[in-house]
Design goal:
Length: 151
């Protein structure tokens, strides 16, 4: 669901987002956010994700955290540093310099995910990549059912 009106009540917007996606539990909330498109812009707010239906890891995970908290779960967004290129599969359409950069690694970047306190332990939930990127080799976590870390 996209929210076209200005968000005056954030909690109501979260409730509307969850309801319109049929999300009633942790896996449902996770997949509702995961299925949103990926887009990196200057606006990293959850409100922007709900308005546009897409967002980068920061905005998507802020939205997921807030949805989980709204449903009584303990969740936080965590930031980690790593090699951005290590997680990007090569594609035939990439120019040679970009492919070389990915193979060489060392592209320092930061990534967010949600740390959710599940029933037995804390779990890392990464809802960054939507289904549309599966054809390009990205992991979708489409089968995550609430047990263990996402991949």
């Amino acid at each position: 669901m996209l929210i076209s009106e200005p968000i005056l009540d954030y909690d109501q917007a979260l409730d509307a987002f969850a309801a319109s996606n049929g999300a009633r539990d942790v896996p449902g909330l996770y997949h509702a956010v995961r299925k949103l498109g990926y887009f990196s812009s200057g606006d990293r707010s959850a409100a922007a994700v709900m308005r546009t239906g897409r967002g980068a890891c920061t905005a998507k995970h802020i939205l997921l955290r807030d949805l989980l908290r709204r449903h009584g779960e303990r969740a936080d967004v965590e930031l980690v540093a790593g090699d951005f290129a290590a997680g990007i599969p090569e594609a035939d359409s990439m120019p040679d310099p970009l492919r070389a950069m990915i193979r060489a690694a060392g592209v320092r970047d930061f990534h967010c995910y949600v740390a959710w306190q599940g029933p037995d332990r804390e779990m890392r939930l990464d809802a960054t990549w939507p289904d549309a990127l599966a054809a390009h080799g990205f992991g979708m976590n489409a089968d995550w059912a609430g047990i263990g870390h996402t991949r």
